[in-house]
Amino acid sequence: MNNELQLLSDYVRKETSHSGEIDADEDLLASGILDSFNIVSLALFAQEQFGVEFEAEELVRENLAKLSNLVALIRRKRAEGASRS
């Protein structure tokens, strides 16, 4: 999870100018680090960066507000893609 988590954390810091630590299990919307626009950008970045495509029903707060949940989603999507190949 470290590589994905680091890339996502770096992206959030760059996009939001957040200079503090970002805990993988922190709710980034509740803490105010991300807003609704940032969360969409983060989802698009993750899709592009990790070569996955999220379904509409996966683009929910539960999957996107915490980096640990987003990493888990990315890994599930990669595993699904690998099993289809």
Walk me through the topology.
Layout: H1 2-16, H2 36-50, H3 61-64, H4 67-84
Could you explain how this protein is built, in words?
The chain has 85 residues and is mainly α. The protein has one domain: ACP-like (Non-ribosomal Peptide Synthetase Peptidyl Carrier Protein, Chain A). 61% of the residues lie in helices and 0% in strands. The two termini are 23 Å apart.
How many domains is the backbone divided into? Answer: 1
Into which percent range does the helicity of residues fall? 55-70%
CATH structural fold name: Non-ribosomal Peptide Synthetase Peptidyl Carrier Protein, Chain A
CATH architectural group = Orthogonal Bundle
List low-confidence stretches: none
Please describe the biggest sheet, giving its number of strands, its sense, and whether it closes into a barrel: none
Shape: globular
Please identify the structural class as seen in this structure. mainly alpha
Mean of residue pLDDT?
Answer: 94
The topology string of helices and strands comes to HHHH
Distance, first to last CA: 23 Å
How much of the polypeptide forms β-strand, as a percent range?
under 5%
Strand runs, count: 0
CATH fourth-tier homologous superfamily: ACP-like
Nearest-angstrom radius of gyration? 12 Å
Q: Give the count of helical stretches.
A: 4
**CATH domain class name:** Mainly Alpha
